[in-house]
Amino acid sequence: MKKRMRIGFIMVALLALILAACTNSDPGAAPEKSGSGTDDGDKKSEAAVNDEGKVEIEFWHAMSGSGQESLDSIVEGFNESQGDYTVKAEFQGSYEELLTKLRSIGGTKDAPAIMQVFEIGTKYMIDSGYIEPMQKFIDEDGYDLEQLEENILNYYRVDGELYSMPFNSSTPVMLYNKDAFKEAGLDPEKAPETFADVIDTAAKLKTDDMYGFSMLTYGWFFEELVATQGGLYVNEENGRSGDATEAVFNGAEGLNVFRFLNEMNKAGTFGNFGTNWDDIRAAFSSGKVAMYMDSSAGVANAINSSPFEVGVAYIPHADEVERQGVIIGGASLWMSKGIADEEQKAAWEFMKYLTTPEVQAQWHLDTGYFAINPDAYEEDIVKEKWDEYPQFQVTVDQLQDTKPSIATQGALISVFPESRQQIVTALENLYQGADPQKVLDEAAEGTNRAIEIANKTKQ
Amino acid sequence: MSTIHSRPDEFIATEHKPGVWERSRRARTAILYLLPSIILFSVFVFYPMFRTIYLSFFLTDQAGDAAVFVGLDNYKYLLDSPAFLNSAKATLLFVLYTVPAGILLSLFLALLANEKLRGIGFFRTIYSSTMGVSVAASSVVWLFMFHPSIGMFNRFLALFDFPQIQWLLDPQWALVSVAISTIWMNTGFSFLILLGGLQNIDEHLYESARIDGAGYFYRLRRITLPMLSPTLFFIITISLINAFQTFGQIDILTKGGPAQSTNLIVYSIYREAFVNYQFGTASAQAVFLFLCILVATILQFRFGERRVHYQ
């Protein structure tokens, strides 16, 4: 009896071993796979052609809600505007989820022709080998980049080459409750500009029911507040002159930001509404906080859902420095490598269509994202809307006032999502009363480890 | 047994030694019958498990493939990392908050619903109804109730002039808040299982006890609990494992925050693997969690099962 059981065990163990052996061969098989992938690239696979004889390409995006509606109508407009290509827009979940799916089929012929990837995935996409740089098509086609917004292009330009086509771009702004300003005896047309001003104003605005200032606990706002002082996020010129090896955001500029927040938190004028966009927006429109930082893409919604007058201002900066401006946030569109030439051509035509002033004007009005083609702002529908909501003008002015520099170009690291998580933890600890320098150093340490692993495993 | 033993004797008598093939016939038949489940388990349980253990010795590259062999470094890093120790501590606390309270609550409800009263079916349905609500849906509802500005709980506190509580934003409260919602979510299932156990207890036992003049609590202690012990043991084991593996409500309610106070191990594995793409350290955490659950379950079977009374 026992013997038989033992034989049974041995057989199960053998099976397990065979499976484990398969596991071992996996990494070995991976280069082979990518090898055949480049073969496909050389031979060029057949373009997918649909029933009507049009070249059909997929477009993966992460836009939900009004963004998705607007995007679907733009895609439809493109499909009707010409007879050679059909674009199929497919929603793939959040930016993170899209990227996870992309990892499994990137670089193969099954990959979508166009993918929308968030700005902090830029470095990852360049390193991945899944993509064809946009510059190639721009040069081949003689496309005039001058017509696009310089400050947006700057972010996506690496070593003088444009790798992806900017698409939905936003920047942070400070929104404030004009009625609360009036009640506190402040000038509602003059928003505070420096950290000290904000601290001062927040103290005056604070009532029993209302906090003076708040900021979503999210790494992006920290990055922006550092950049507007001219501070860098990582070394190697923000990762733009070479692979970054170390975080530098725990320097003087980063500390300024943490002290600024800490001072208001200690004084009880800072409201902490957590990490959820909806919560902080609800807090503002229900009058629980008088000033807060939001994305420029959230301005329209804030104006519409608030029962009071909403003011829009530039983000604050440290007192001792000059304002440098903002880094572009949002996402850009990437072109797949290893798909058929015809499909790439279709994708390129679609991207050109996207950047026309008419389409950009529609996109800007539907979603509140910037028009990457500034000519869009001259379109009549935009002018009308701006007359109605002069606040939109501020967001565009802030972007165009930005001084191009390495700081405002934004950092390039492949481990940005992890680093942002470190900042979130640091901010949460700060609000619990921890020392600003200490929590910043911890966040920098965590980022350093992530960078180190990424550099070690990069082939 | 005797028939099995007698067979080799017969072979010896005829001076014929059976070969391995002959002797393993029964084992082979058994394996054949087991094959479907062995294949299924291998593909969906054993293979991922071995793959996880394998990956835990590596650093992975951007595509998630094993790139640099680091031996036990991932484990060393974890045991030194304050963030991971904090996760382990939060997980333990979470288990302590949810398992005993959840089981006591559902036992209490099950005892109530076990009484034969008119319309008791209505209460039985209500008490077990949380089983029909998905974790995602109920988490969203709880999210609204915990909301700092428009949430029900804070409005309720304001009615009585109590100070407002930042349910999900205060590190002191966040884990408790998630635990409360988890207890609520799990009550339905535990309640149903326990009620089933109670209904199975032989009515005669109570009858004889009543004749002997035993009071309610005496009957509860001497008849109900011992007779219910197999069910209780089952539900404790399941709840414990479930609590260790909690993910959905964390993802929706707190995303591991504030200040990592609700970053339970499973959530931390998810973050490490699918946000940071560090499959190596994520796998090491998964192996650690597996060992913890294994030890907890073994301990429970060793010490807990002694008190279980099987009929």
From TrEMBL, chain A:
<dbReference type="GO" id="GO:0055085">
    <property type="term" value="P:transmembrane transport"/>
</dbReference>
<dbReference type="GO" id="GO:0030313">
    <property type="term" value="C:cell envelope"/>
</dbReference>
<dbReference type="InterPro" id="IPR050490">
    <property type="entry name" value="Bact_solute-bd_prot1"/>
</dbReference>
<dbReference type="InterPro" id="IPR006059">
    <property type="entry name" value="SBP"/>
</dbReference>
<feature type="region of interest" description="Disordered">
    <location>
        <begin position="27"/>
        <end position="48"/>
    </location>
</feature>
<dbReference type="Pfam" id="PF13416">
    <property type="entry name" value="SBP_bac_8"/>
</dbReference>
<keyword id="KW-0732">Signal</keyword>
<feature type="signal peptide">
    <location>
        <begin position="1"/>
        <end position="29"/>
    </location>
</feature>
<dbReference type="InterPro" id="IPR006061">
    <property type="entry name" value="SBP_1_CS"/>
</dbReference>
<protein>
    <submittedName>
        <fullName>Carbohydrate ABC transporter substrate-binding protein, CUT1 family</fullName>
    </submittedName>
</protein>
<keyword id="KW-0574">Periplasm</keyword>
<comment type="similarity">
    <text>Belongs to the bacterial solute-binding protein 1 family.</text>
</comment>
<keyword id="KW-0813">Transport</keyword>
From TrEMBL, chain B:
<dbReference type="InterPro" id="IPR051393">
    <property type="entry name" value="ABC_transporter_permease"/>
</dbReference>
<keyword id="KW-0472">Membrane</keyword>
<feature type="transmembrane region" description="Helical">
    <location>
        <begin position="282"/>
        <end position="301"/>
    </location>
</feature>
<dbReference type="InterPro" id="IPR000515">
    <property type="entry name" value="MetI-like"/>
</dbReference>
<keyword id="KW-0812">Transmembrane</keyword>
<keyword id="KW-1003">Cell membrane</keyword>
<feature type="transmembrane region" description="Helical">
    <location>
        <begin position="30"/>
        <end position="50"/>
    </location>
</feature>
<keyword id="KW-1133">Transmembrane helix</keyword>
<keyword id="KW-0813">Transport</keyword>
<dbReference type="Pfam" id="PF00528">
    <property type="entry name" value="BPD_transp_1"/>
</dbReference>
<feature type="transmembrane region" description="Helical">
    <location>
        <begin position="173"/>
        <end position="195"/>
    </location>
</feature>
<feature type="domain" description="ABC transmembrane type-1">
    <location>
        <begin position="88"/>
        <end position="300"/>
    </location>
</feature>
<feature type="transmembrane region" description="Helical">
    <location>
        <begin position="90"/>
        <end position="113"/>
    </location>
</feature>
<dbReference type="GO" id="GO:0055085">
    <property type="term" value="P:transmembrane transport"/>
</dbReference>
<protein>
    <submittedName>
        <fullName>Carbohydrate ABC transporter membrane protein 1, CUT1 family</fullName>
    </submittedName>
</protein>
<dbReference type="InterPro" id="IPR035906">
    <property type="entry name" value="MetI-like_sf"/>
</dbReference>
<feature type="transmembrane region" description="Helical">
    <location>
        <begin position="125"/>
        <end position="145"/>
    </location>
</feature>
<dbReference type="GO" id="GO:0005886">
    <property type="term" value="C:plasma membrane"/>
</dbReference>
<comment type="similarity">
    <text>Belongs to the binding-protein-dependent transport system permease family.</text>
</comment>
<feature type="transmembrane region" description="Helical">
    <location>
        <begin position="225"/>
        <end position="244"/>
    </location>
</feature>
